[in-house]
Structure formats: structure tokens, C-alpha cells
Amino acid sequence: MNLIFDTHAHYDSEGFDSDREQVLKGLPEHGVCHVVNVGATLAGCRASLELAEQYPWIFAGVGVHPEECGDLPEDWLEQVREMSRAPKVVAIGEIGLDYHYEDMAPREVQRDVFEQQILLAKQQNLPVIVHDRDAHGDTMTLLRKHQPRGVVHCFSGSVEMMREVVSLGMYIGLGGVVTFKNARVPVEVAREVPIDRLLLETDAPYMAPVPFRGKRCDSTMIAYSAAKIAEIRGMSTEEVLTRTKANAEHFFSLEGKV
Ligand code: NI
């Protein structure tokens, strides 16, 4: 039985333009049961919906990423709302805050776009997929305020922050970063996070785990992140994959449907 549930990938990315169909068709032969393809732009969300329609093992997230929220059309939220009604949409994302570079969309615009999409997710009864880079304080302020169902993807905070996210009822998304040599805090988080709140992800085509670091990532590589997490926690890789797959099915309300 295929045990890899990739809760966060971007197969609409141009990194897959040359061989997208081949890669996606091959996933089930290589241990992958499901992928949530996460939109970042309005066009990316449409592409995400198309992939979900085309491949039975793909579901879609729709949302506007903080890096993409600087120049949105007036009706952007209506567009996301409309797309979120499609049958295979399982989350609002990727949404959040990114304060890494100075020249990104103004922080107040990012916060506004994030907050409006959290409210949309609550209205639509969908979980949020949260991107938080160098913005832990403001991210937590908004999560505390609205308490959405959701996951903080590619979690980069401390163990203390992880505990607060979990206490809000949310999940922690971990991927290739746990395998990196310099990963100290992510390893602590992987050890301490309650197993029933852990989701595995790639962020493909980015964040390939060791030994593929720097190369193009795809969902099959989750096996390497899972093996590392298994080693950290003293579990078997199969158990990590089985537990996180069940978590993902619960998180995305797919129990009994897949
Ligand atoms: Ni992403």
C-alpha cells in the first residue's frame, strides 16, 4: 500500500514544465498515495485545480502566497472564494506572511491578505496552509486571534512556538529541512511534536531532502524525510508514514473518501 501523502507541493511550478505528466503519472508507482498541490498565485490556483481534475491522486489548495500579494486585482478574494468551491479543493493555501526580503509586498498588505483568507477558510470550513518565514510574531498574533483549523507548513519556529501552534489545535508540516546538516531546531521540533499533529510535505520543486539537497524535489523524496524523522523519534519509517498519512486524511477531511 502506498504510504506517502505529500501535503504540500507545487507541481504547477515551471520547474516541472518539461516533464510534469511523466512525473505525476509515476508517483503512484513510487509509493505516493496523495498530493495536495498548493496554489500561490491566482493563475497557480487555476493550474492547481486543473491538476486535481486530471489526476485522481491530486487534491488542490487555493490561496494567494504572501510573496504574490503585492499587485492583486480588486476581485482577488472573490476569485479565491469561487475556486475554493471546486470539489477537490481541500484547503486555503498557501497563505501567510514572509518578512524575509525588504522588497516584498508591504507588511500591512500581507497581513490584510492573510487575514482575509483565514476568514474565507473559516467560512468555507476548510483548513489553512500557512507560510511563515521570518514572521513568527505576527503569524502567531493572527492565528491566536482567529484560531483557524490549519497547518504551519515548513515549520521554522522553536519548540515553544510549535507547542503553542499545537495547543491552538493546529498541525506542524515538516519536510526536507529535517535532513539538512545544520538543522538543529527542526530536529528538536520533529522529536517533540505530538505524532498525531505531524504532516509530511515536500514543497516540491523546492527543499529536496539530503541526499538530493539542491536538486529538484518531488513527492517520492518524502521517504528520506520520513526516514530521518523515524530515526529522530525511534520509530520505523513505515510507522511514521502510516501515522502521518492518517493525520493528513483526517486533516483534509478525506477519511472514507479515498
Ligand atoms: Ni510552498
Automatic annotation (TrEMBL):
Record flagged with keyword Repressor: no
Gene Ontology cellular component annotations, sorted alphabetically: cytosol
Positions contributing to a divalent metal cation 2 binding: H131, H153
PROSITE patterns: TATD_3
Pfam families xref list: TatD_DNase (PF01026)
Keyword check for rRNA-binding: no
SUPFAM superfamilies reported for this sequence: Metallo-dependent hydrolases (SSF51556)
Residues given in the record as a divalent metal cation 1 binding sites: H8, H10, E94, D203
InterPro entries linked: DNase_TatD-rel_CS, Metal_Hydrolase, TatD-like, TatD/YcfH-like
Keywords per UniProt: Hydrolase, Metal-binding
Entries under NCBIfam families matching the protein: YchF/TatD family DNA exonuclease (TIGR00010)
The name this protein goes by in its record: TatD family hydrolase
